């Protein structure tokens, strides 16, 4: 396909306009407004053309064996898309790194109410898990073996990761995918972004773009484990040529696959925008309220197999009573240790963003955003026979006919609170050379501040001692300031050779004052300055074939628990990642089958991620379920990612991706606890390992999807995922592992368009089609006992075969 793009009023050519083919950057128009897509796969495609100050257009096209000459015209804009900040942190075909784009349409067909990680499950190197077992509630994602604390997540360029834990908790933004325009997944260090450093990947999320036409729709889902999703959304379209309003209300609830692992999630999204000529002002707010029953302790390993003999050490260590032992074997892999009726996590997070975008002639545009995130909530726990001294309460002395009794322990209920504010600004100044497409450049960055209070309260006790209502037994506050500035550019040095450069400076100041829940003083002062350069090159071998390579440096500070959960004097070090990415992309016809033209899009990417002082998971958890980590001097992740998509006419597409990797610690010293036969700790020893496998890092991950359209309006897709063995710690022991698993899903979507409604869509998702019993996450701890080493492994089983059915109405 080739063609020209002009101004719809003057007829003048539009140089430097952006082309997206199926959501993937496909080039820009040259000085004459011309473009060329020399290799377009057979089948249906979506071509989008956009240019600052003009209304973008989207056209459905069909790849054909013969050349096509196309002509398009953009209308001068009354509307700006407001993408200045988002675009500044995104990768494209010139930034020489590995990335995947998921459009609004792709997300919509995957979305039955499960959390965002589950919508990304088929992208390369991704492994997902769910505490409750069915993708609703607390979910996790790992990319290249790196969990979400090493994945930079932004929404409209605004950081989502928690400033202290670095985690991104999608349970706090339920059904956000229903209000998302697109998501870009960058693997490796990627391009410079706001917020925490990317140590495995980045998720760049963009909420709904301007929609010129009014709409209204409702999505309703019901399925296994009493799972419900009800969502209503609307948009006014362009009002008076200058204003737009979009909104959504959602409710998602589920009993969960695991016992009592229920979720009650509510959320809203609202955006109001003003556009006039080259100016855009847009207010975006979204919020989530979640109440989830805790399931973060997992299931003891022997309960999955019903091995009573192997379970005995668990029963001895935890002094489990007869009733709970019976319940454990009855529930099996759906067992939940907690039975207190309000053992819940109760948290609300409100997001407010004000975006501004201004076109500055044909070459420049400026974008900025002010943001505020307000979070507050607690998790509640029943504690049996806990020490009063842990809560700074004196023993209770009881006097009766039988004499005096001193009570030093009691049953109680406590809440641990988090009350925080995160606010700041982001900005980006973008330049694109008007006379040709050779040079693009961005100056961007952001300043962000976090203020958070952590405190605990006793809200009930069987023996209350001298406590007050809501007895506060610990308090600490934290402040963190994060500033970064980056400059990056792409330059087409030769017709076939393009260069890319990116320089970022980031500073962090982190303060903690007070005592933690174990009454330890956790006062911390830490400051960091990081310089993160990146460079790359692309080379066009032939039409539709590109080679690329890049080298990037990423550095990041430790997370809160690295400071607060370590022994006094054991200060964590910052981490450094040197990331090499090199690959080959192809997009072209490959012949014919049964008289139909075949098209292929494929990519092979090699990565080498060398770490210095990487903080790796030990496999242990602290008392709130957060992973404990330790620095290792040298480690690496290296491998190959292969992805391909082939189309047969308009009714069959096949896509697949495979990641083969090695993930090693060059040296690792395990701290091994020594216990007597009564489970009393006697001390510690160390065991040295070399070339040990990094925990939670499978060597093989695959994702495949076959989608067919046998009838008009009917789409059927078979999805297949495989994940090889993972280790729960860094010792590569078969006694502490997550076995390999493979799981298939079946998805059906059928849409009709009656005269009285824009669309009715019926959907069915069958998860775990072949009823596989597997666990996607877990943890371990243990030590040396008189009879040998003993490991206590806990797992998070995922649901067996289950269903979600949906009805969507679009007006």
Structure overview:
- With 811 residues, the chain is mostly beta strands.
- It has three domains: 1-77, Sandwich (Immunoglobulin-like), CATH 2.60.40.1120; 215-298 and 336-810, Beta Barrel (Maltoporin, Chain A); 299-335, no CATH class.
- It has seven helices and 44 strands.
- It has a 22-stranded antiparallel beta barrel. It has a five-stranded mixed beta sheet with strand order 8-13-14-11-12. It has a four-stranded antiparallel beta sheet with strand order 3-2-5-6, with no helix packed on it.
- The longest helix is centred in the middle third of the chain and has 11 residues, at 308-318.
- The radius of gyration is 28 Å and the shape is globular.
- It starts with a strand and ends with a strand.
- Residues 78-82 have low confidence and may be disordered.
């Amino acid at each position: 396909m080739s063609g020209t793009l002009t101004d719809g009023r003057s007829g003048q050519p539009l140089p430097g306009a952006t082309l997206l083919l199926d959501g993937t950057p496909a080039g820009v128009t040259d000085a004459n407004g011309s473009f060329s897509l020399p290799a377009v796969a057979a089948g249906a495609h979506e071509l989008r053309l956009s240019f600052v100050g003009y209304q973008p257009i989207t056209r459905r096209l069909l790849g054909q064996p013969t050349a096509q000459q196309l002509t398009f015209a953009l209308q001068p804009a009354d509307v700006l898309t407001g993408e200045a900040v988002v675009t500044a942190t995104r990768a494209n075909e010139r930034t020489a790194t590995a990335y995947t784009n998921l459009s609004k349409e792709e997300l919509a067909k995957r979305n039955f109410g499960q959390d965002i990680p589950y919508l990304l499950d088929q992208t390369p190197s991704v492994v997902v898990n769910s505490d409750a077992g069915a993708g609703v509630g607390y979910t996790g994602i790992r990319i290249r073996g790196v969990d979400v604390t090493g994945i930079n997540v932004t929404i409209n360029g605004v950081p989502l990761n928690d400033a202290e834990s670095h985690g991104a908790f999608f349970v706090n933004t339920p059904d956000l995918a229903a209000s998302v325009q697109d998501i870009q997944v960058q693997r490796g260090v990627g391009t410079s972004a706001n917020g925490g450093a990317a140590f495995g990947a980045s998720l760049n999320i963009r909420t709904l773009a301007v929609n010129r036409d009014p709409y209204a729709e409702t999505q309703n889902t019901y399925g296994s484990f009493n799972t419900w999703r009800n969502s209503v959304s609307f948009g006014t379209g362009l009002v008076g040529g200058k204003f737009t309003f979009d909104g959504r209300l959602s409710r998602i609830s589920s009993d969960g696959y695991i016992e009592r692992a229920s979720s009650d999630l509510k959320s809203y999204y609202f955006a109001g925008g003003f556009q006039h000529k080259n100016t855009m002002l847009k207010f975006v707010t979204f919020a989530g309220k979640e109440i989830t029953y805790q399931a973060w302790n997992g299931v003891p390993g022997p309960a999955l197999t019903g091995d009573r003999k192997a379970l005995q050490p668990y029963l001895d260590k935890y002094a489990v009573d007869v009733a709970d032992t019976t319940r454990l074997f009855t529930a099996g892999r759906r067992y939940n240790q907690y039975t207190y009726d309000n053992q819940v996590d109760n948290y609300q997070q409100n997001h407010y963003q004000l975006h501004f975008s201004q076109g500055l002639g044909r070459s420049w545009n400026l974008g900025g955003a002010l943001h505020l995130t307000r979070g507050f909530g607690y998790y509640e726990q029943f504690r049996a026979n806990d020490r009063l001294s842990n809560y700074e309460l004196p023993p209770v002395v009881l006097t009766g006919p039988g004499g005096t009794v001193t009570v030093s322990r009691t049953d109680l209920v406590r809440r641990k609170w988090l009350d925080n504010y995160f606010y700041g600004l982001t900005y980006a100044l973008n330049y694109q050379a008007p006379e040709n497409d050779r040079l693009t450049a961005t100056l961007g960055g952001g300043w962000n501040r976090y203020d958070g209070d952590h405190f605990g309260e006793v809200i009930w006790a069987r023996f209350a001692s001298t406590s007050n209502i809501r007895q506060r037994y610990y308090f600490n506050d934290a402040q963190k300031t994060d500033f970064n500035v980056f400059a990056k550019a792409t330059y087409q040095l030769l017709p076939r050779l393009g260069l890319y450069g990116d320089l970022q400076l980031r500073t962090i100041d982190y303060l903690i004052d007070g005592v933690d829940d174990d009454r330890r003083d956790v006062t911390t002062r830490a400051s960091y300055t990081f310089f993160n350069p990146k460079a790359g090159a692309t080379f066009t071998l032939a039409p539709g074939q590109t080679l690329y390579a890049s080298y990037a440096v990423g550095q990041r500070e430790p997370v809160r628990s690295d400071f607060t959960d370590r022994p006094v004097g054991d200060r964590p070090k910052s981490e450094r990642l040197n990331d090499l990415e090199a690959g080959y992309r192809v997009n072209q016809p490959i012949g014919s089958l049964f008289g139909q033209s075949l098209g292929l899009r494929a990519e092979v990417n090699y990565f080498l991620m060398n770490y210095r002082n990487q903080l790796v998971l030990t496999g242990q958890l602290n008392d709130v379920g957060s992973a404990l980590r330790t620095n290792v001097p040298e480690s690496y992740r290296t491998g190959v990612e292969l992805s391909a998509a082939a189309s047969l006419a308009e009714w069959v597409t096949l896509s697949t991706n495979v990641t083969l990797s090695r993930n090693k610690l060059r040296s690792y010293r395990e701290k091994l606890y020594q216990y007597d036969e009564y489970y009393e700790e006697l001390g510690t020893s160390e065991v040295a390992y070399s070339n040990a496998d990094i925990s939670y890092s499978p060597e093989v991950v695959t994702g495949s999807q076959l989608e067919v359209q046998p009838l008009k309006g009917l789409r059927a897709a078979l999805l297949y995922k495989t994940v090889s063995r993972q280790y729960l710690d860094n010792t590569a022991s078969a006694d502490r592992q997550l076995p390999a698993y493979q799981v298939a899903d079946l998805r059906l979507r059928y849409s009709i368009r009656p005269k009285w409604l824009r669309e009715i869509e019926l959907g069915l998702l069958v998860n775990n089609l072949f009823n596989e019993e597997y666990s996607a996450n877990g943890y371990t701890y243990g030590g040396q006992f008189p009879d040998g080493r003993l490991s206590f492994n806990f797992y998070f089983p995922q649901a067996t075969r289950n269903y979600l059915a949906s009805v969507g109405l679009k007006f």
